[in-house]
User: Fold this.
Amino acid sequence: MNDIILLKQGEIILKGLNRGAFERKLIENIKRRLSPIGKFKIYTMQSTVYIEPLGQCDMAAALDAARTVFGAVSVTRAAACEKDKDAIVEAAATYLESSLKAANTFKVESKRADKRFPMSSISLSQYVGGELHEKFPHLKPDMHNPEFMVNVEVRDMAAYVHGPAMRGAGGLPVGTGGRMVTLLSGGIDSPVASYMMAKRGVTLIPVHFYSHPYTSVQAKEKVIELSNILSKYCGRFKVELIPFTRIQEEIRNSCPEELLTVIMRRFMMRIAERIAKFHGCSAIVTGDNLGQVASQTTEALAVSEQCVDIPVFRPLIAFDKREITDIAQMIGTFETSILPYEDCCTVFTPRRPRTKPKLPDVQAAEELLDIENLIEDAIRCDS
Ligand code: ATP
Ligand code: MG
Assistant:
């Protein structure tokens, strides 16, 4: 019996004329994710992606990997069998044996995408249910609240039998939503913000600023580790490391202390914009969250982004910390994010940062800096 993975397309099915392009991207992304696990035949039909192993492979690992690919609402392992009512019963009894033995009540639900199949969905469910009841006499049918649901799908090429499907990653395939630069610190928030934008199909170029020797090698490695974790969801996700020490020192030496953070942020934005234009990206993503720290008031955020002319997206703006940490835990970045290595933002923090900075004050302070030269220098040293 063939064990395969079925992946149900999500929002893609609403994409009229562009749907083919979305499906191709989805398949391309699944192929890339599964290539280290084994060889598979991957194709899509009737809003479902079929992942068939070609030879021996770790199907549990393949299922885990398939669950991280954006574009699917549900993912399940299934047994493929002949489109024949008794073959379906046999497949269900064998493939789902342990679950059927463990449950007390069950229900069979059938879908018939192949309308040439000689039984209606209801009569197929009744037939398979009756036969399974014979084979597992302890099992009682329960139409309203079954402990275990047996799903039967009769499709063009074969029939498939499976238990309850798992939730897929949702969203849209990465690569269908344009390109953006994402500002990745070592904190909890920016990896989550990156994940959320990738979920909307965006290809991301991560950028990290470090302030050697004020920040340690471990702080940089932590960000590389975070980007490795995120590449599971985001596809290629190689972080660009930008030295920030000289900029921070110049700001500290020349600007009023209470404006250090906002001016530093404006440099991050300007550099991100340069990198964005170089890579053909149309926006910048950050993990900012309203009111979390002094630099995240509406006024401070507005002044931070006023120096760039591409949009700045902040997907976490209205989340609370609990919601953010829940996602961080789910995607596996939390444990790395809480490693205690300092970020460049915590170096030279003003004692009393201005929570409502005024643009003219900030611009006046920046006049003492050779902005262009500092930016050029940082980008040139990009490692
Ligand atoms: P995070 O948990 O993402 O670090 P935070 O709550 O600590 O966020 P800040 O340190 O004020 O907030 O940073 C706000 C945003 O600025 C971050 O989410 C990130 O997008 C960006 N950022 C901060 N530090 C860096 C850095 N060293 N390199 C790149 N981006 C950064
Ligand atoms: Mg931070």
